[in-house]
Design brief:
Layout (H helix, E strand, L loop, with lengths): L1 H99 L4 H5 L7 H6 L13 H8 L2 H42 L3 H5 L32 H16 L1
Length: 244
């Protein structure tokens, strides 16, 4: 009986230990599951942030590569433009040296014309701050080109004056060619000249030359001047025509 009682107590003790360990196992299992759940969520967050950071890095790398490519292309274009400006500047300097040889003494001493003081006083003062889109610094930079535009405008005016004078001389040249042709037709003998009016034939103190009327200048006396060489040449031509 005592042996059975001891075994019963031992069995109860073991049962209590088993219950305790089962409870401990349940507690540890619950704690481990909670810990695993937290670790899994933390892992998912880390993976998400990793992919997000990787995606951001790739986008940033692509943007930087694109910016680097644009910067390289713009740098090359800028260098080409600067080289073009350099060539243009060298060409301008060479042209200026060549043009300086053709300048008059006055232009060499005073390369820029002097502005009229009266005109400057009459011009209103420019308020740069009121000009839309214009900064004072930019305006001052543009003022550095005043001397260039002075020379450019002077050359442009000279060019226009020369073109006008050229047109006038060409018109006079055509007129004198026409007179010369009429004169040569008058002193030569051929069928066309005989059948047409002789421009040198004087009828009632009038010639048949096709020429515009002579305009008299106001205040000038009515005087006709003939150069001696012209008279001698005309006489020689008439004599040669008569002898022939």
């Amino acid at each position: 009986t005592e042996y059975i009682g001891n075994n019963g107590r031992e069995i109860n003790k073991l049962r209590e230990q088993i219950s305790f360990f089962n409870l401990k196992i349940q507690q540890n299992k619950k704690e481990c599951e909670e810990r695993n759940s937290r670790l899994k969520k933390e892992k998912e967050k880390i993976v998400y942030h990793y992919h997000k950071l990787k995606r951001t890095m790739n986008q940033t790398r692509e943007k930087e590569e694109k910016r680097l490519g644009d910067l390289t292309m713009n740098s090359k274009a800028c260098m080409d433009t600067l080289k073009g400006y350099q060539k243009l500047g060298e060409k301008i300097l060479k042209t200026a040296e060549l043009c300086r040889k053709l300048e008059t003494e006055k232009e060499k001493v005073l390369p820029f014309y002097q502005s009229d003081e009266v005109t400057l006083e009459e011009m209103p003062e420019i308020n740069v701050e009121k000009i839309e889109g214009m900064k004072k610094q930019k305006y001052n930079e543009f003022q550095l080109l005043d001397n260039f535009y002075k020379r450019y405008n002077k050359v442009l005016l000279d060019k226009l004056a020369i073109e006008k004078q050229k047109a006038t001389l060409e018109k006079e040249n055509m007129f004198f060619k026409s007179l010369l042709k009429q004169y040569l037709d008058g002193v030569s003998v051929n069928d066309d000249v005989i059948n047409s009016n002789n421009p040198l034939l004087v009828v009632n103190s009038k010639v048949n030359l096709n020429r515009p009327p002579v305009e008299r200048m106001e205040g000038q006396p009515h005087k006709t001047f003939v150069e001696g060489n012209t008279v001698i040449n005309n006489i020689s031509l008439q004599r040669n025509a008569n002898y022939n």
